[in-house]
# Entry
Amino acid sequence: MDERDDLPTGEGAEKPGTVSDATESAEELRAKVAHYKEEAERNWQQFLHAAADLENYKKQAVRQRDDAVQRVRTSLLNVILTVVDNLDRALEHADKDGRAESILEGIRMTHRQVTELLQSIGVRSIDTIGKPFDPRFHEAVDVASSGAHSVEPGTVVEELQKGYLFNGEVLRPARVRVAN
# Structure
C-alpha cells in the first residue's frame, strides 16, 4: 500500500495551501481591517475634539484680551472725564467772576481739545435737560418741584454732572435733578 492512500481524499479533504487556508487568512485580514478602521475613527474623533478645543481656547483668549483692553480704556476715560469736569467747573466760575480772560480762554481751548479727543475715540455726552428721566442714562440725585420749572413730572430740569456714552454704551450716567 502507498502512503498516499492513508491521506483523506474527496470533497472534505483539506490540503495545505488550499482554499480553506485562504478563507481563514482572508477572515483574519478582514478582522484586522475592521479593527484598524475603528482605531482610525477613534483617532479622527479625538483629533476633531482637540481641534475644537483649540478653536474655543483661541476665541476665549481673544475675548479676554478684548475685555482687558475695554477695562483699561474705561478706566482711562474716567480719569479724562474727571479732568473735563474740573475744566467745566473752572469755566463756570471764571464766567461768573469775569476776571482773567486769558486764563479763561486757555481753559476753553483745553476743554475743546479734550472734548474733541474724546469724540474722536467714540465718547459722546448724553443730552439731559428737558428730556424724560431714563435710568439707563441718568442718575437722579435730587428732585425739584415741577411747579418751579413748569415742566412735566419726570423731566430732567438740571444736570449736576454730565453723562457720557462710549461707542453707544453708557460710560457714566448723567447725575441729574428731576421734576417731581
Remarks:
- The chain is about 55% helix and 15% strand.
- Helices lie at 19-97, 101-120, 146-149.
